[in-house]
Design goal:
The structure is a homodimer of 151-residue chains.
Chain A lengths: L9 H6 L13 E7 L5 E7 L1 H10 L3 E4 L4 E4 L8 E8 L6 E7 L15 E3 L7 E2 L8 H5 L9
Chain lengths: 151, 151
Amino acid sequence: MQNFKPRLSVEQVEEGHDLSPKFDANGLIPVVTTDADSGEVLMMGVMNDDALRLSIETGEAHYYSRSRQCLWHKGATSGLVQTIVEMRIDDDQDAVWLRVRIAGGASCHVGYRSCFYRAVPRGGGPLVFTESEKAFDPIEVYGDAPNPTRL
Amino acid sequence: MQNFKPRLSVEQVEEGHDLSPKFDANGLIPVVTTDADSGEVLMMGVMNDDALRLSIETGEAHYYSRSRQCLWHKGATSGLVQTIVEMRIDDDQDAVWLRVRIAGGASCHVGYRSCFYRAVPRGGGPLVFTESEKAFDPIEVYGDAPNPTRL
């Protein structure tokens, strides 16, 4: 398994070749996932230590599910597995960017291609849908699994 | 100023036209910012309530700086202002995606175009730089302002 390096200096973290990720107080690091071809942002999530190691090792996106409080191999339920084309880490190594290809071409539990299917107009006003139809039927794919959205 | 709507139901939040953002226990919402033309992820940050309102109102990206603990009008120091081409909100409205154009074409305090200038190889191993040179000299732009990176 991948060993993460200790964070010793700003220069090492920002300008070096060591992977020294910074997990927050809850042991999590934020992740943004984009479609490797279109550049569209598909989702934002978090990884814990194990999810990051497994993503590097297997080439498939693993996250930590805060609603279910467990390691989450994306696509294990839905089949919408994310194959990692490229993984990047940011300057201070407290954020991860995954460029992925998705089996089935969709990512969002609501059924849309991207989780970001609504635009916020400049100046405010009602949200504008940017996808006109769902890529899959969430009931068919997830059945009666609890909806992860929390109010 | 934009008024955010109360979160009343999963259906309203996921399928409706109300902007009802969910801020975390610290009053923050994560933001991913991409180049509107190339789709490249430039940075990840957070907004508080004011930063989100001001971003919607002015069309320029405002964040909350956790290192400085204050509202942060991106580019106020560096001149690298981010003009918002499109703002999106995700399914459960706990994450924001900004598509921006940047004066000067760079975003990262280290001097690179994107904060994500290093790739993590599949299986592990040393990080690989994806930008070969800096877009600007951070000392010239930021002078002796404290480096925001924390170990």
